[in-house]
Amino acid sequence: MASMKKTLMGLAALLLAAAVWLPCLHFVFARRTSDFYQAQALSPQARALGNRHLRLWTEPQSREQELRKMRASNAEWDFMGRSFLVWSLANMSLRDLGSQPGYLQTMDQIIQETLRLEQDRGLYFFLMPYAHVRPWIMQPPRSLFLDGEIALMLAARRLVEEKPEYQQPLTERVNLIVDRLNQSRQGLLESYPDECWTFDHLNALVAIRMADRLDGTDHSALIRGWLALAKQKLVHAETGLLVSNTTMGLRALNGPEGSSIWMIAHLLQPLDPDFARDQYDRARKELGRTTLGFSYAREWPVSWESEPDIDSGPIIPVFNISAGSSGMAFIGATAFQDEPFLSSLATTLDFAAFPTRKKGALKYCASNQVGDAALLYATTLGPLWRKIGANP
Amino acid sequence: MKSASPVGPGLHSQAAGAEKTGTAGRQSFALRFAACFSPMSFIRLALLLTVMFGLAHLAGLREFTTMLNGTMANVEVGWRMSVFLGTVYILGYLGFVLLVPTLVLAAVFLKVAECVGGRRRSDAQRSLS
To answer: Which residue of A19, A117, A254, A310 has the fewest C-beta atoms within 10 A of its own C-beta?
Structure first.
């Protein structure tokens, strides 16, 4: 009888302790939002994450090791890691003028190496192997994934400081995208054979908007036309969110996805601010979740069922947490100044992403180079968009 | 008809002995089980979890948590081993962050309850005497 009483008391003490500790846990990992993002200056987190990436580009051995790890899973990540880093460095250059020369040097190094790899190794070097499985619908084959992000890298570099050597490559790439968009019957371009990604179209459109600002061209009608198409044909009926990808025949493949939609909303900001805000608010409602003070994001809304893929990362059951979507949610929360969400996302990051600090450089062990570069972008975004008249 | 029992007296006593042994076994198990719910046991378990996590951390397994996004921490080690080592670290970390404070708090609550209970008992005995 006494032992039964002792056991029950022990269990009750454990339950009570859990009821006290679990709701308090998030306080241990809570940080000020200003540690993560600052409107004008570079936040401490941005500086530390930036140090890690700059070090990767000055230490070829570490970079080689990091890229090998990522390319073993997904060659796209190598490419996207470069894009996010260049866009981040552009924003950092505009925030910290003293460090601008160093940042510009690294941007040039990345851009030149990426262009060289694209030229030497061809279209498939930065694509996943399934790009070989089906034939491309539009000929000659080109991937808007590569064209859009490279154009945006070149344009971002030129917006920070003009570099005449990049004017022609940017103009050529923009003209190529515009010509192909005009030729496409549905107004869509492939990133993979018969696979058109909303994310890549918006990257390309922002690059075109930047090129217009830089070179005095005017593609506003094309941009308006594409956005009208997106609102009419690329919206998931149940949630009102833009779908991630479709076939060239406009058949939705993946529905709305967290790993795309947060960045999509941000990319819409300089193109159509009201639509951008609408998409962010819907994504927040459909995908953003907070439990015991920790925020995270689902990959799919409840109304769309799908299997985990390379973009979502493994989905943590019960809560349906997607590492990919949660990482990209930082970009949305920062871009739309959603401070409560950003603050508790940052809490989750420190709790679950295993930060490691070494000699002023920060990396998240649960992430990888591309994930950390996307986080770096979230900590720095703003100035580049303001240069083309947006106000994130 | 001295005994209506279907079994002989020897068997009877054997059964009674077995019953006694069973009861004693159950009692000793209950006692041992109850002992797991003492403040000291909670603290011991908390220490064990802390040491296990510390070892995983010192062994550099934190790097392997990159498997959470589908990346191998070390291409030479391979995907399966990376997932295994990453999972070991994550379980150790969750044990350290979630269970250790819970166990310590539970130990404190139990100790307080024991003290309060003990004081009440001695007050009651004093008032009886």
So the answer is: A19
Separation CA A114–CA A62 (nearest Å): 18
- Per-residue CA distances from A249 to A186, A204, A205 (Å): 7, 20, 20
Instruction: To the nearest 10°, report the CA torsion of A365, A46, A371, A292.
Output: 70
| In contact, A232 and A188? CB cutoff 8 Å | no
Asked if residue B53 and residue B66 are part of one domain, the reply reads yes
How many domains are contained in chain B? 2
Shared-domain flag, residues B13 and B70: no
CA atoms within 13 A of residue A301's CA, in its CB half-sphere: 20
Range of the domain at B23: 8-36
- Residue in A27, A351, A354 to test binding to B, most B beta-carbons within 10 Å: A354
Token pair in block for residue B59: 């062994």
Mutate to test the interface with A, among B68, B77, B96 (most CBs of A within 10 A): B68
Higher pLDDT, A142 or B32: A142
- Statement to judge: residues B45 and B32 lie in one domain: no
Residue numbers of B between 24 and 83 with CB closer than 8 Å to A: 27, 30-31, 33-38, 42, 62-66, 68-75
What are the distances in angstroms from CA B81 to CA A367, B75, B95? 18, 10, 21
Q: What chain B residue is nearest to A11 in terms of C-alpha separation?
A: B37
In a mutational test of the A interface, the residue from B53, B69, B88, B98 whose CB has the highest number of chain A CBs within 10 Å is B69
- At A266-323, the pLDDT tens digits run 999 999 999 999 999 999 999 999 999 999 999 999 988 877 777 777 788 778 888 8
Cβ–Cβ of B102/A7 closer than 8 Å?
A: no
| Confidence band of B24 (pLDDT split at 50, 70, 90) | low
Nearest to A10 among B37, B63, B66 (CB): B37
Find out whether A46 and A374 touch, Cβ atoms under 8 Å.
Answer: no
Nearest to B39 by CA among B109, B129, B121: B109
Report the predicted TM-score, pTM, of the whole model to 2 decimal places.
0.89
Closest Cβ opposite residue B30 in set A3, A20, A74: A3
Is the pLDDT confidence value at B100 over 70? Answer: yes
State ipTM: 0.84
